[in-house]
# Entry
Amino acid sequence: MSTIKPKEVANDSEPVDDGTRELRLHHPQNKSDMDVTYGNDNNEDENVPDGHDPEEEENDEDDENDEDDEDDEDDEEEKNNGNGSDSSGDSIIETDPFDYDKSKQIKLIELDEKLKAKLDEGVDTLVEACPKGLDSIVQHFTFQIANIESMLAQPDTYLSEPVQIGGYRFNLMIVVRKGQDRILSAYLKGRPVDEKENEIWSFPVHFAFNVWDADDITCHKVNFSKFRFSQRVDDWGFVKFLDSKFPTDEKFFRKNKVNITVYVRVIDDYTNCLYSNYVDYDSKKSTGFVGIENQGATCYLNSLLQSYYFTKVFRKKVYKIPTDDEIKLEMDSYEDYKHQHKTVSLALQRIFYRLQTSNVAINSLELTHSFGWTTADAFTQHDVQELNRILMDRLETKMKGTEIDGCLNDIFVGKMKSFIRCVNVDYESSRTEDFWDIQLNVKGLKDIKESFDNYVELELLDGENKYDASGFGLQDAEKGVIFESFPDVLHIQLKRYEYDFETDNMVKIHDRYEFFDEIDLKPYLDKTSPGYEDENWNYKLHCVLVHQGDVSGGHYYAMIKPTEKDEWYKFDDDIVTRVTPYTVFEDGFGCGPPKNIDRSMTREEYQNYIIKHHTSAYMLVYFRESKIPHVLADVEEADVPEHVKQQIKYENQEDAKIKKEREEMHLYINFKIFTDETFAKYQGFDLGPDEDNLQHFNEDLFDDGSFPIKLKLLKTQAWESIYETICKFSNKDPKVFANKLRLWSITKRSNNTYRPERPIESMVSDIDNQTIESIALLLENGTSRRKYAGSNVPVVLSLYLEDACRDLKYLASQCGGIPKGLQDYEERLESLVIVANKKCDASLEPIGDDSNILIMVKLFDQRKQTLKGVSHIVLPSDAKIDFIAKFLQLVFNVDDGEQISFIEEISFSQRVRVRTDLSLYQNEISSGDIVCASFDDDQDKELQFQDAESYYAFLETRVHFYISPLKRIDEDEEDFVFVETDPSKVAASDSIIDIWISSNSSYLDICTFIGKEVGISPEYIKLSVLSNGNKTDLKSDFNFSTALQGFTKNSALKLYYETLNIPLKSFESMQLYRIYWVGNGICKEEKHDFYLPSSSTLEDVVSKLQSKLKSEIDLNAVFCWVPDRQHKIKRIVKLEDSIDNHDVLIVGLFPQYKELFFNDSRDVILIAGFQCYSSIENTHGLPFVFDLVKGEKLPETYVRLHKLLGLSGKEFNSARIGITNSSVVEFIDKNNPASNSIELFNYFENGKYMLVIDHLDRKGRRSSHHSSIMIR
# Structure
């Protein structure tokens, strides 16, 4: 390579951590950053110079660290003066980048051939090699400092003349700082030769400084590093390159002259990311692609999505899924639009289109939300293969009945045949099935070819393992699999995880395992398959999914070849970079078992090794070579559904508006204004819905018209302009209404309620001269309600708007203007408001003295079972409550003789009765208080709420319930649950009941609600809840009030109900029994749960069990025992015995055991046994009964015991068998030939011992190192 040109890449060259403390330190502990050697006749091989004590060296380093802190301060000071260099990346000097010291303090010198040859050796030994897969150019130059003392006397920055390497120029830069005692700092400065103004550039370099005695080249010292130079940071080096306080460095100062050979390796980094820290890295500009943000632990999902995105034929098919009717653009607000549920199909279409068009990394929140995942699910690493399969199932379901039905099979599904073929007769049994991926073994195999060979390897069935061929009897046979077809896109799962029986854990296989860029799969194809002879079965690698970590967790990323070109990219969450083919394969292969780690490894080498050891491919994606043009055909704009493009365009526009609003947020004040109009539509506590109250707010509870008016006004506007804005918002003429309106501050009282406090006009003397900002500052510093939500969220001030035309007194005066027969309270109020607004001759009454106060009035309407606001009323504080009652009688056309009662709404949980014969002052009612009226003569005893207090109590305790019929009927209840079979009633019984119920309701109250909805008697209804798929029945005395304490109004409790065949009380009197059927082996037990009367016998259990097993059970052969909590036998149960107090039973067909139990035998004894792992205290599984035969040798006993337990051959052979008295155990050495003569009968004859089987608990195993996935 003759010339290397600078790359135009993003500004990404912050100082890079090479794995050490700080590259510029004089004595880093990592030899990869710096190496020091000296040639000296007296101490050639010594690491510590003469007279330097190692203990003192540690102290020196501590001192040095202290001095480094001081140096940082000096650096900052010198940086401001245009001298020095610091880690911020600012340039050392402010002059032209290629200007240099004309005083020639640093001279470029020519060396004789002998010295040149000696220094040439450093190219390979001192400068780190070029990363594999990249090219580089390396050169070295020697500079001489002829007078060190002269430099020290004049602190400054000294720059050598530039030298050119490829397309770059470099200078050696020596810095002498003021206040530092005899220290030289050395840096390499580099920039492109043809740099243009404002050009963004960066390039990586390996370099070394070899400082040596001008008279003795063997006396030298080397510092080396690597760095990515950029327009922001164009120099890098060592602060304490030479420090006179170290004796080894002092030698150079005494000589006063040194030569410095600078080795520079410039790397042609077409990946644009070598040694980058990605601070300002732009994936789109650098690669043309964007990444996907990690939600917490969704890197595995991100890598899978990128793989599917670049399988372009799949992307096209996903775009064709009909999703145009799923969400609407026309919604009341952008928030409502965003909250619309999206199916998996639509979410995937949108993700693909965003990946196709976005300039920044996207997120996958929509997709995970479409799965039904919570934040906790997003922080859980799931199994990629399982997720892949579930995702495909969802898409397949959505595609059914469309033009693309079955297309996924055409892309991803192949066929394989499992067969057993007889060797000596013409007989074959086979089964052909589809596969979505191929799982290949890794353990003990060298590469993917060996894995395929292993996959199709034939197993010979002969000897005792002969195959029973129908019509031919037992025959020698070959068992195996063969592929009948391979898909266009082949997913290969590498089995990097296995179960370790010794540790009882899943472990990751770190073996080095190679895969190829191209593989011919024809050898694994059935020769009778279509196209076997004349088609190309070569497959090309296009994607490698990599896991970096261990079984307990780690990180996932993908390396993908997006096109037919041999160009690979790494998709690591939100960052996309170009990578070399060498990286693709070496990162994916793994590196085998750990090698010996010794002290000679540097920290960087050790860290790199650990990362490489834990990094390996777990999934490969191959494209069939002949189908690549089809699989990678370009996705055109026309392929994208129009509704998806419209949605994304609309969202981009709205997001841009929001961004602009946030940027301009500091220019505006935001208001929430509660009005008499919103108050009249509001049903709840306080003045209106409180979106900030997370405990009690739920948007669905409130009328849309009850929410406060939201305004955003420029701070510089005059305060009076707010009235004009409100009028326009309310479609009122400002000229008519502006002087009828008055704004009040809202205060948060000590009981956490919000009430109008004072008119704004009463808070300032010169209201006409106030601006929005000045009033806002007044309110913020005062008692007005304000929402604090951080610097990125605007301040929101809450106000109440008093409208003189809606004063209760004025409304009462307009009663003559509405129809006399109008009786509905809400209709009368609305009609009066219309009349009052038309006439609009009311005036605002004075507020501020001790006489007049403003009261907010609500009304409980018993007929409609509502409690809503009416309006406000301004009255003298000495007016009696009866005065309000008279106006209410007029407004709602109620007879004078009808009694009206009042309560004051003190807080969310407190109300007090108001005496009508006392004044407002005497009732301790002040300005801003809320009173609620109700007409006492308007009683209907059948209604749920009889008065305002009971309705307030409901508002306080109401909880949202979703009540559904339970579709799943557990085995233990199936005889008692009624299943509706009448088609005309099924639909009604399947409906979900969406209801608000008081948490003080009893079990019977809730069952009564359900019964009324579905027409079922409440005593036959049983309630339950589901948690993680597990059902928990609620008892009839369940206390909902206690269980729902702290339950927020924004949450919903999901209840499930079942209809019983018998009353719930009768069902609850029954007992749940757990029965283990061990007919197939003690370790192959079948668990069954039954509800039975407590008086039941074992015979009743067997009868029930018989119906479950759907087979006859010979009662004479039934043998049953009861386990204890230690997994040992507690007692034997007879058929006629009651099972009361025995909620767990083990049942099997053991006629020989039954005979022995009831009849003594001298030649056979019955013993108890149990299972454990590692220790006899660590019991597990089911205890068992076993018979020992007199004279039977151990091998024969083992055969019968193996059959009884039902373990696999591998598990039984690894198990230990012992004899124990529950305190001491003695295990039998099965590998000792002498053990074959043992007769266990002789050890157990006295009946003091038990048999123990020590093996792993199979029920405790994890099938995978990942949590199971649910896409809801």
In short: The two ends are 57 Å apart (CA to CA). DSSP finds 36 helices and 53 strands in the chain.
